[in-house]
Design brief:
CATH class of chain B: Alpha Beta
CATH superfamily of chain A: STAS domain
Distance between the termini of chain A: 34 Å
Number of domains of chain A: 1
Order of helices and strands of chain A: EEHEHEHE
Distance between the termini of chain B: 34 Å
Strand order of the largest sheet of chain A: 1-2-3-4-5
Oligomer: heterodimer
Number of strands of chain B: 5
Strand content of chain B: 25-35%
Structural class of chain B: alpha+beta
CATH superfamily of chain B: Histidine kinase-like ATPase, C-terminal domain
CATH class of chain A: Alpha Beta
Number of strands of chain A: 5
Largest interface: A-B, 21 and 28 residues
Number of helices of chain B: 6
Order of helices and strands of chain B: HEHHEEHHHEE
CATH topology of chain A: Transcription Regulator spoIIAA
Strand content of chain A: 25-35%
CATH topology of chain B: Heat Shock Protein 90
Helix content of chain B: 40-55%
Structural class of chain A: alpha/beta
Chain lengths: 124, 176
Amino acid sequence: MDHPSRPQTQSTPMISFDETAHTLCIVGESFPENSFTFYAPVLDWLKQYLKNSQALVLDLAITYMNSSSTKCMLDLLDLMEDANARGVKVSIIWRFDRENPRSIELAEEFSEEVTFPFEIVAIS
Amino acid sequence: MDLYSLREQFDASGMMICFNGPFSHSIIEELGTALRNHLADENIGKAAVLDVFATYIELAQNVRNYQTLRSLGQGETAASIITISRWNSGYAVSSGNMVIKEDAASLCERIAELNALAPDELKRRYKEQMRREVPPDALGAGLGLLEIARRSSSPMTCAVRELDGPFTFFSLTAYI
């Protein structure tokens, strides 16, 4: 299965995958017309990828997400949590905007949902 | 047509942006950009800008998803209003659209219920709803009103205008 790749638009984030670094990047804002259809291919791919791989880093720089995108993000984190329980080395780097307190609050709320390494760093 | 009196009314109520008509996803995007540009000139913090923007997005997408769900996206039921106004030292974001009579009653009940909840309880409910399975054909995650309640500084208000026929006009305002 090809890895997901999407350009950034006004309401959807850029998605890319670096195979050698095992890193899935999601950058931008997320309020698609339909979050479920937007994220479904990413979730399908990640599910397959985590079955056959030893590691995954999720590198996020999302400054705003609408409510249905937060649901999709939680689904993504749940897939990683399951993989973590099977011994796959997973982690998250969540990049936040230091000028916007909402940005770090969002990161902290998601970090409460997982047990694997979750690093929250300011966008420089 | 002389639009001056309409404009005067808008100015008197502190209205900054108003859209009236059937709206699409691209209109939601464009209006969102206009809103942010407008707020950028207001000298308020990034968090406040995001709270107003996020509330606008949830309201607008709620209306659109409702219209799709109830097949109201065509003809006279399609036209909806979104407004962003200055309110006290903050902002009021409103949506108005045609809804099926019975839906208006349950919406008002749900809003009254959310208005009564403390921030910690809203967070708990948000997380609980986020964990709930979404039906395969769902358009949203059932989180929109919770999201708005969490960003609000005062209770949400709603108004129902009774009309002849199966619909009523439903207005919802959130205060940031």
